[in-house]
């Protein structure tokens, strides 16, 4: 398997893991297995009557719910497979150290990141879905996905030979859009982990207000202490609405910036038409994500749409990574 093929396979699996993680979280299966790394003391879900009875006796506060437990374990199996593929990438980097095109550092950064992700996964369970930990776990998954995308674009010919027509303003816009998207992903994760997705059940207003009552101090308190079960959230209505409303405002800002970036890419296409392909991809990914976000509210958080909204965020992130790679690679060719 070539370096490019291994990287592509790992990137695809990372997307699957992100999607599975969203499915587990949004179907309230984050504590489907109350221990880690196994499930009720097993490497799979206990199904035999004696095993289930023993598990229920050991974890009396959380009896076995096999459907939720299987969701959690399938996610863990997929995450473990992703870790092994990233380890292979790191070992391949050592073996091909003489290749001037081989990335030597980034695969090992990814390996450290995925190990830290495993720790966050453990703390997600042991700290009872603490929003800060769950949000960090989601951001770590997105960071892994983005870095794998950067590796892929560096390893393959996707942007080889692009004309150096990216002006400084376009590079600044691309970098700014990426930074703002990371902030918006944090807001989306904070909305989800605090169970605030339906805190504003109407659209475009929030609880019939164009600017609802807010409590930013409580809404964005990152640490509430230990020993609290955060399943289904602990915040009152106003802080939850504040989180949701802030996420909506962030969506407006990021949409404006991305549309400006798409316009800049389109103008760059007058010189090299390939930039217009990136402009169209960005506009399409943005439109899809906005439509999914509105649908989450309008249809009252259907699981499939909410999971797709998480996946759409990952695809939008990958698109911006591709654009940044293209504009900065173009600069290197000057």
UniProtKB/TrEMBL annotation:
GO BP terms in the entry: heme A biosynthetic process
Subcellular location, record wording: Membrane
Gene Ontology cellular component annotations, sorted alphabetically: membrane
Pathway the protein acts in: Porphyrin-containing compound metabolism
One MF term in the entry's GO annotations: metal ion binding
Pfam families found in the cross-reference section: COX15-CtaA (PF02628)
UniProt keywords, alphabetically: Cell membrane, Disulfide bond, Heme biosynthesis, Iron, Membrane, Metal-binding, Oxidoreductase, Transmembrane, Transmembrane helix
InterPro entries, alphabetized: COX15/CtaA_fam, COX15/CtaA_HemeA_synthase
Regions crossing the membrane: 74-94, 106-126, 132-152, 172-191, 245-266, 278-297, 303-323
Membrane topology value: Multi-pass membrane protein
Superkingdom of the source species: Bacteria
Protein name: Cytochrome oxidase assembly protein
Organism: Salinisphaera orenii MK-B5
């Amino acid at each position: 398997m070539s370096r490019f093929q291994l990287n592509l396979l790992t990137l695809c699996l990372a997307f699957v893991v992100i999607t599975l993680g969203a499915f587990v979280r949004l179907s309230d299966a984050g504590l489907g297995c109350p221990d880690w790394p196994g499930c009720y003391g097993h490497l799979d879900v206990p199904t035999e009557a004696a095993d289930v009875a023993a598990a229920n006796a050991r974890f009396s506060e959380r009896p076995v719910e096999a459907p939720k437990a299987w969701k959690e374990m399938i996610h863990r199996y997929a995450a473990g497979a992703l870790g092994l593929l990233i380890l292979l990438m790191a070992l391949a980097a050592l073996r091909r150290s003489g290749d001037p095109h081989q990335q030597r550092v980034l695969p090992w950064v990814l390996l450290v990141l995925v190990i830290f992700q495993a720790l966050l996964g453990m703390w997600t369970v042991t700290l009872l879905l603490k929003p800060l930990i769950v949000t960090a776990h989601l951001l770590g998954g997105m960071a892994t996905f983005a870095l794998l995308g950067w590796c892929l674009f560096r390893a393959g010919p996707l942007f080889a030979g692009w004309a150096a027509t990216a002006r400084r303003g376009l590079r600044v816009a691309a970098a700014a859009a990426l930074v703002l998207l990371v902030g918006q992903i944090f807001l989306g994760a904070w909305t989800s982990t605090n169970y605030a997705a339906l805190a504003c059940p109407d659209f475009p207003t929030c609880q019939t207000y164009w600017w609802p009552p807010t409590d930013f101090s409580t809404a964005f308190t990152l640490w509430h202490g230990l020993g609290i079960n955060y399943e289904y959230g602990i915040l009152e209505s106003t802080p939850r609405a504040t989180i949701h409303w802030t996420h909506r405002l962030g969506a407006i800002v990021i949409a404006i910036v991305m549309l400006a970036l798409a316009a800049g890419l389109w103008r760059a296409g007058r010189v090299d038409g390939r930039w217009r392909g990136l402009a169209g991809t960005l506009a399409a990914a943005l439109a899809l994500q906005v439509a999914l976000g509105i649908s989450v509210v309008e249809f009252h958080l259907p699981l499939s749409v909410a999971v797709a909204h998480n996946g759409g965020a990952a695809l939008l992130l990958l698109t911006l990574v591709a654009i940044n790679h293209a504009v900065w690679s173009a600069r290197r060719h000057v």
